[in-house]
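User: quick one
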Amino acid sequence: MSDERVLCLSEEAGIAESLVRLARSLPLGAQGRVEALVLAGAPPGAADRLAGAGADGVTTVSGAESGDPQVVAAAVASVVESLTPTLLLTGSTKRGRELAGRLAGRLDLAVVTGATSITLAADRLTVERETLSGNAIATERVERRPALVAMLPGFDAPRAAPAASVTRAEHPAPVVAALVEVRERRPKPGGEVDVEKAERIVTIGRGLKRKEDLVLIEALARALHAEVGCTRPLAAEAGWLSDDHWIGLTGHRVHPKLYLAVGVSGAVQHLVGMRAAKVVVAVNKDPKAPIFAQSDYALVGDLYQIVPALTKALGG
Amino acid sequence: MAGKLRIGVAVKHGVDVVLTRADKATGLIALAGAPRKTSDFDKNAVEEAVRLRDKHGGVVTAISVGGPNAKEALREAVAIGADEAVLVTHDGWADWDTRAVGRLLAAASRTLGGFDLLVLGEGSTDHFSGILGPRVAGELGVASVAYARKITLENDLLLVEKDLEREVEVVAAHLPAVVSVGQEINTPRLPTFLQNLKASKKEVRVLAPEALGVDAATLRPSVVAERVRVPEVPRKLTTLTGATPEELAQRLREALASEGVLP
Ligand SMILES: Cc1cc2nc3c(=O)[nH]c(=O)nc-3n(C[C@H](O)[C@H](O)[C@H](O)COP(=O)(O)OP(=O)(O)OC[C@H]3O[C@@H](n4cnc5c(N)ncnc54)[C@H](O)[C@@H]3O)c2cc1C
Ligand SMILES: Nc1ncnc2c1ncn2[C@@H]1O[C@H](COP(=O)(O)O)[C@@H](O)[C@H]1O
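Assistant: Done. Structure below.
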């Protein structure tokens, strides 16, 4: 079996560390190596933390401070040339995927994004990933190297001991012209809730008739010490709630103890966001709503009658 | 940009996620022969391409890489307003992987005369690799912007609002460029009966990889799906009943208390 050289990089410091731990947990062979990249914009101390997470080598790229994925890809490509990794790991975040695509086009790599786990056995690389709008898991065999795997945030990353000796290197980025110029950067509204960490969530869907009626849902959420979640239409189309409440394929993935879905039909793209909930309760006036097939407890009826009663019963 | 604007738009005829069912006994999904439809964001991509053409003039060419029935996605693109339709296919069609599709889209862009702007969806409904736009741009060596929520064009300068997880970036790039768009960018029009009828008669140009200068033998899959399964989450499926909303609420309170999930 030949040895694996894994190169880990992510614009998110926490993900970069988890990637190093994940790489460390794979059977890389006697001469196998875990290399980590520190890119422009990394927080101070990033190199030390990557070393602490188990990297054999940490390369700090100087230059390439640009919002243009082309510039960053050129820098990473030149590191790839000198370290000749067999496998590149990154995070399946928006920037992670954009960089992955850019790099893959440049270097003609095999790519798997949205990965949930990796298996390496006897030179065979297999990856599990979400597919079909997140409602299925595909097991994919990678037939070409080097390959790039983008891991969905939240993947398992077992702790590992630091390597006995860690090589540190500086790598000057090649100078390339940016093709894209960032003119403005503004934070998105929100930051009100972190549904991904919530223990209880009351999610409201299009069963709600008017924005003013949100008070009913907020009262129920208060009674349950829960956060308020919503389906896509309420955030993206109506704008009644900010994006940080949005749950599903294109929103947040949550894993609360209790998920109470009110006036939510249960579209596949929503279900993927709530699949990991321990107990699911659905309130819907349509007994045939698909959400009921994914629920522990079904309450069939009008939310305008049921929600106030629930607030009362669950509040005290 | 010399002369009229040439816009390419990539449309995928992908597996219909809603109609596809897993085998009850095994939990496995067979993708071969599964029902297909136009990938959701690709309709936004076509709509955006058509709006840009209507404003600035030019030609919109829809391209799909797929089997013979991918013509349906192309006809939908024409019904929305695309001027031309190109299908890239090969005999005995079997799905190509993302690498192959990326190489074919890049080759199509080159050999069909070079697009000033190539528009893609930011992810396909079924596969959602979510990288094809940047991948094609990386291969062509042109500018790329993903996650576009708003596009404006001033001569050959493209201004895009890029929607990231926690921030929005406004970026500028000169044509030629590749942009991938999400669902929030527009609402694709619903073609009229007449537009659909006209589109159904539209000639689709069919090209093999070789016609684009790509040797099909080099498109061997780099990634192969061994199996696709639906993760089974066991749920109790208990319907609670009560004569009044209050009684129903009481039943739920008892159930949640015994589950130990109340505060
Ligand atoms: C590519 C893509 C990505 C997507 N990503 C997401 C995502 O991340 N998250 C997401 O949520 N969606 C997503 N969607 C949208 C998804 O397909 C559905 O359209 C959406 O989830 C439906 O939201 P809803 O359940 O609130 O509305 P609806 O489907 O309209 O359902 C409303 C429900 O409320 C019930 N109802 C109405 N009145 C009452 C009442 N008085 N009392 C009780 N019940 C009532 C109705 O019976 C119905 O079941 C995505 C779609 C696509 C194509
Ligand atoms: N077979 C295909 N033919 C044409 N365009 C495609 C094809 N597959 C993907 N695309 C384009 O690439 C985008 C992203 O797809 P994906 O990388 O699968 O998430 C889609 O929204 C389409 O615009």
